[in-house]
Design brief:
14 strands, globular, Rossmann fold, 3 domains
Length: 393
């Protein structure tokens, strides 16, 4: 069901503007619910408010209401940072301004920020209760008080972004291909369910009419022996590369969920190039390990335990590690010699690419879990064979 679409797979629509421009009223008008508090008191909206819904023909979306960009309160700077975090994940931007006031410098500067990111946008002139003129193009006059042009606004939003369908893996396979999914069930596996990358890949393969076999690493050898014909592809949890790399015959393509998401959400070539930086790490270098989700970290956690141990063992260096989770990402990253990122299944494409742009703009290398683990295991070229357009220098 569309209503169950993960947040990371929804189009992110965000509403920006000054205090009391009517952002929350626009948010409520679009969602048809009184979710955001509307008040004449300045700074009513503090932290971003969000709502999942559907806007046809766009499909599943998530809409954000943000704090005023001109918030001068004691917490204004922190609220503005939260607003910029939302901007980094925005697919469609709605900038709300009061039609009865000229655009101020803070507004024009923020609109330029939106433009610089090549985000489709609308400028919404609110409080147009008695105004007779009509804006065109990417501008629209509305009144949340009278309901003027609210339907037209929704129509304009629905036409702002054409969804070019992206696939995780099924566009590289044929109907009835056999695919093995190697899914370890260990202490880090959630009880009674699969993690999101496994769910999304499995559903996409079933939609493609592939034959899908899900197994644990210890069943791989026997499963391959029992198959009449070898599978077209084996997709594994990256942590199992070391266990299964010598079991899988060379003629069978092998990759991981994390590597597939490196291509689906980020920039595969950039992340592959980043793997080489591990060879240049020196004693006392600082490495950032960043995860897009927030979870309870266990004693053998991949991000805080397994990845650091792999890197230290492979390099033989005394390296410092720092960690971030969820929407948190450092503002200043110049001190890091390398950034190691998760597969980003909980981030949308826009946010992941914003992170990559921020990292690479500082000439810092970045790699994700799956690519790093395959590199350490000496099978990176093999692990990206499913992407023949990618060459490894």
């Amino acid at each position: 069901m569309l209503s169950n679409t993960p947040t990371s797979e929804r189009i992110h629509i965000a509403i920006f503007g000054k205090i009391n421009a009517g952002k929350s009223s626009v948010f409520n008008a679009i969602t048809n619910q009184n979710i955001s508090i509307v008040s004449d008191i300045s700074g009513t909206t503090t932290d971003p408010v969000k709502k999942t819904m559907e806007i046809l023909p766009l499909g599943p979306v998530i809409i954000y209401d943000t704090a005023g960009i001109d918030d001068n309160s004691n917490l204004g700077e922190e609220r503005y940072k939260k607003t910029l975090e939302v901007l980094n994940k925005t697919d469609i931007a709605l900038f709300v301004t009061d039609i009865n006031k000229p655009l101020e410098k803070s507004e024009t500067e923020f609109i330029e920020k939106i433009k610089s990111k090549n985000i489709p946008y609308l400028i919404i002139y609110n409080k147009s209760d008695n105004n007779k003129s009509e804006k065109t193009g990417n501008e629209i006059e509305i009144s949340t008080y009278t309901g003027k042009n609210i339907t037209l606004l929704k129509d304009k939003i629905s036409k702002l972004k054409v969804q070019n369908q992206k696939f995780i893996i099924s566009d590289r396979l044929n109907e009835f291909d056999t695919v093995l999914l190697v899914i370890p069930i260990d202490e880090s596996a959630p009880k009674g369910r699969l993690i999101l990358p496994q769910q999304l890949v499995l559903r996409e393969l079933l939609d493609k009419k592939c034959t899908v076999i899900c197994i644990q690493p210890e069943n791989l050898k026997e499963t391959l022996n029992n198959l009449k014909n070898p599978p077209k592809l084996i997709i594994t949890d990256s942590q199992a590369f070391g266990t299964i790399k010598d079991i899988v015959p060379a003629e069978i393509m092998l990759t991981s969920f994390s590597i597939l998401f490196a291509n689906y959400k980020g920039d595969l070539k950039t992340l592959i190039n980043g793997a080489k930086q591990i060879l240049n790490l020196k004693n006392n270098d600082t490495v950032l390990i960043s995860e897009g989700c927030t979870h309870h970290r266990q004693c053998n956690d991949i991000g805080t335990v397994k990845i650091p141990n792999l890197v230290k063992k492979f390099t033989g260096k005394d390296i410092n590690f720092e960690f971030t989770q969820g929407g948190e990402f450092p503002e200043n990253i110049e001190k890091y010699s390398l950034v190691i990122h998760c597969g980003a299944c909980m981030l949308n494409e826009q946010e992941m690419k914003s992170r990559l742009e921020k990292i690479t703009s500082k000439n810092i290398s970045v790699v994700n879990y799956g690519i790093l683990i395959s590199f350490i295991n000496g099978i990176l070229s093999r692990a990206v064979e499913i992407f023949p357009e990618i060459t490894i220098d």
